[in-house]
Amino acid sequence: MDSSPASMPTAAIPLTQNCFEALDLHCVRHDRTLFAGLSFTLLPGQILQVEGPNGSGKTSLLRMLCGLLLPAQGCVRWQGTDIQDMRHEFLADVAYVGHMHGIKEDLSPRENLRMSQALGRPRAGVTLDEVIKQVGLYGFEDLPARTLSAGQRRRVALARLLVLDARLWVLDEPFTALDRTGKALIESLLETHSRNGGIAVLTTHQPVVLQQCTPLSLQIGA
Amino acid sequence: MPNLNQACLALLRRDLTLALRHRGELANPLLFFVMVVSLFPLGVGPDSHTLQTIAPGVIWVAALLAALLSLEGIFRSDFEDGSLEQLLLSPHPTALLVLTKIIAHWIVTGIPLILVAPLLGVLLHLPPTSMGALLASLALGTPVLSLIGAIGVALTVGLRRGGVLLSLLVLPLYVPVLIFAASAVSDAAIGLPVLAQLYFLAALLALALTLAPMAAAAALRISVS
User: Fold this and answer.
1) Are A51 and A205 in contact (CB under 8 A)?
2) What span, in angstroms and rounded, lies between the C-alpha atoms of B66 and B70?
3) What is the pLDDT of residue A3?
4) Which of B78, B92, B123, B138 has its CA 20 to 30 A from that of A99?
């Protein structure tokens, strides 16, 4: 089964300065081709929503985009360079929230965020208290994450976007387990991110409502 | 730019905090070590000469198995909750972060073994002259066990039942450590010089310290993809 890239805007003159490109990506998992020949270019401020049925390779695509998974063919470029050739610089620019939260159940949200901050490039001028308040975990910041609800744990994982100074956000089903205010919060974060010239790639089955920019959409496995 | 020292310190602190919050799991390998060694006098009999002869081998084999028992903990829970992905997505050199995790593992599993070993030596009638060699061999040898073990765990962490495979992969690589360490302790017991064996252990440690983190980091990349 092969998929064709949906109507994606490709810059007539590739602006390699700050863009994020996928070139002819092929994904093969367990001897099955999930998608082939997938290409797109994202410019600063653009948000891409990847859609497709279950098992169509959305998660694999996102993992490829942040370098966790090597494409069977093709390459991913950040600012015009293959990400495999500039791992450290690229990874300092990426924040990834996968469907596994990447938080420790026995640590509190505050300890978890402190760890995320130390591992990446911390955002200047942000305190953990502010971030905790912003994602609605005020009052829960010192409880072990194990005692929090699924939605709250999701918020801890997503708070990583606020403590890191990342220009590329890669979000795998960010709205899962979130309530309506949680979804609105993520949407407003995406909007701010886009306004500041950030790029985001996310998968979700829900419509993403942004006031000032329309997310681009990419259909795979259709 | 992100600060590497800070990242390693934070990671070390996190792993030690986590270990402290799971004190039960922490005690398992240590209890295993103590129990296996203390079974030998019961099984072999209380003859001090026999016990003294087998003591170095028994203590070291038990230390090997206790280390093997605790290895999975280095990466397993990180793999399951996605922390490992975040670790690999850190802009810092993965090998150094992996080394930090191995050091944390050694602090919580290796050091207790070293501390309790002299007591078990007394139990097995090991002469006081060989206590120094026992401690030195454990201090040089147990970090090697953690380092080599980390490669094995990194390779098998993605498999559902990696346990048996892990011991098949790792135990043969532990053999040189076992040979030099046990020989150091038994030579010390009969008053022979042991510096040669200790130098060999130190060389193994230097080798493992430089190569194992890189191999484990590469193996982790394969395991998560």
Assistant:
1) yes
2) 7
3) 43
4) B92
Q: What is the pLDDT of residue A212?
A: 79
Q: What stretch of H or E contains B180?
A: helix B163-189
Angle of helix B94-123 relative to helix B48-71, nearest 10 degrees, comes to 160
Pairing of strands A81-82, A94-97: unpaired
Contact A92 B91 (CB under 8 A): yes
**Which residue bears the tokens 């270990």?**
B19
The residue of A115, A147, A161, A171 whose CB has the most chain B CBs within 10 angstroms, and thus the best one to mutate to test that interface, is A115
Test A100 with B85 for CB contact under 8 angstroms.
yes
Q: Which among B134, B88, B96 is positioned nearest to B115, based on CA atoms?
A: B134
Exposed/middle/buried for residue A170 (C-beta within 10 Å: 0-12, 13-18, 19+):
buried
pLDDT of residue A11: 44
Compute the radius of gyration of chain B from its Cα atoms.
Answer: 18
For residue A4, the model assigns a pLDDT of 44
Global pTM reads 0.91
pLDDT digits (tens, 9 = 90+) for A63-76: 999 999 999 999 99
- Secondary structure letter of residue A164 according to DSSP: B
Q: Which of B18, B195, B208 is nearest to A115 (CA)?
A: B18
Q: Look at B86 and A68 and tell me if their CB atoms are within 8 Å.
A: no
The CA-CA-CA angle for residues A52, A23, A191, to 5°, reads 60
pLDDT at position A43 is 92
